[in-house]
């Protein structure tokens, strides 16, 4: 409206995707404890409002819920409208929502947990892998959530981050997103050459991966084919590359990735060796990085590490 000047919300405002459980919920808790106004998002309204209630019961009142399915454009647009209307800016976006893109057969959860209890880290992972299948539909959903979802949410919220005096994006990545898992040196080099890489090419690579997945051509075409989880590894590597391209394009923002560590959550049937408190540490460092601080980087837990 002519002549009307909108006052920006005084607190820092953060959006966390997949905030209803696991590492996302813990990031919400720690951000709120640091005085940030947190928009806890979840695809399921009931789970999201329950999570806000739980944080509220611990004295964290500056947390509100908003529905968000990260792979859905209109859901993301509704979230952007809400933030614009209510706060006029966004300071921190944490792209945390993620899936592993597999199906694990567990007939009896109790004996499953008992069997796992006697094993150490890598044995547990190996045992889970043996009971896991990776159907094409799950691979497709994995790319859609972890890579395209991150992109959809980021693109929609970017103007609001630019309205902040210090916009930050934290992408919750994974060790599995490192380029060392790609069998093909050419593909590895292409994904590491950020100066020559475009967002369009990343979308194209996502399509090529799915085609090769369907045709059983992952190994010959250089995708991560050994050790399982090819869709997860590819989705996180593409999201890392997207994060780096964006950091280069927007030097006014701080845009970084973090591997949280092997954290005990639902995603790994609580086999992780870190607590969610420990797993959220790197994300908090990046979310609260000072203006002019690191950008285009990857943290392995809390230490800067290469993308390869
Ligand atoms: N735990 C680890 O050891 C580990 C290691 C490396 C990286 N990570 C990464 O850390 C992040 C968090 O994982 P976590 O361990 O906390 O797993 P989690 O407990 O399984 O939580 C995953 C969260 O993502 C949400 N989500 C999934 N798909 C979504 C979608 N399409 N739209 C919106 N929300 C969606 C889930 O919502 P619902 O409750 O509705 O399913 C849930 O809130 C993921 O990106 C994961 O890849 C975890």
From TrEMBL:
Pfam families per UniProt: adh_short
UniProt GO molecular function: oxidoreductase activity, acting on the CH-OH group of donors, NAD or NADP as acceptor
GO CC annotation terms, alphabetical: membrane
Family annotation (InterPro entries): CBR1-like (IPR045313), NAD(P)-bd_dom_sf (IPR036291), SDR_fam (IPR002347)
Taxonomic superkingdom: Eukaryota
Keywords, comma-separated and alphabetical: NADP, Oxidoreductase
Enzyme Commission numbers on file: 1.1.1.-
Assigned protein family: Belongs to the short-chain dehydrogenases/reductases (SDR) family.
Alphabetized PANTHER family for the sequence: (+)-NEOMENTHOL DEHYDROGENASE (PTHR43490), OS02G0640800 PROTEIN (PTHR43490:SF135)
This protein's name: Short-chain dehydrogenase/reductase
């Amino acid at each position: 409206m002519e002549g009307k000047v909108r006052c920006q919300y005084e607190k820092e405002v953060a959006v966390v995707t997949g905030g209803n459980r696991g590492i996302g919920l813990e990031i919400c808790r720690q951000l709120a404890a640091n005085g940030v106004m947190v928009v806890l998002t979840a695809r399921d309204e009931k789970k999201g409002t329950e999570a806000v209630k739980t944080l509220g019961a611990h004295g964290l009142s500056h947390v509100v819920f908003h529905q968000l399915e990260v792979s859905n454009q209109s859901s993301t647009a509704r979230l952007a409208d809400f933030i614009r209307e209510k706060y006029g800016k966004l300071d921190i976006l944490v792209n945390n929502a993620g899936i592993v893109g597999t199906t694990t057969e567990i007939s009896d959860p109790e004996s499953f947990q008992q069997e796992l209890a006697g094993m150490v880290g890598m044995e547990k992972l190996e045992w889970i892998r043996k009971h896991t299948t990776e159907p094409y539909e799950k691979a497709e959903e994995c790319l859609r959530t972890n890579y395209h979802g991150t992109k959809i949410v980021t693109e929609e919220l970017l103007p609001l981050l630019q309205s902040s005096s210090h916009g930050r994006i934290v992408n919750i990545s994974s060790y599995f997103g490192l380029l060392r898992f790609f069998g093909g040196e050419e593909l590895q080099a292409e994904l590491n050459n950020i100066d020559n890489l475009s967002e369009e090419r990343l979308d194209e690579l996502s399509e090529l991966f799915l085609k090769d997945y369907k045709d059983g051509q992952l190994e010959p075409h250089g995708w991560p084919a050994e050790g399982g989880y090819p869709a997860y590894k590819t989705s996180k590597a593409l999201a890392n590359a997207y994060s780096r391209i964006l950091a280069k394009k927007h030097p006014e923002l701080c845009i970084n990735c973090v591997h949280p560590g092997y954290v005990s959550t639902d995603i790994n049937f609580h086999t992780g060796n870190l607590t969610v408190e420990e797993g959220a540490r790197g994300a908090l460092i990046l979310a609260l990085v000072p203006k002019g601080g690191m950008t285009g980087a990857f943290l392995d837990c809390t230490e800067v590490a290469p993308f390869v």
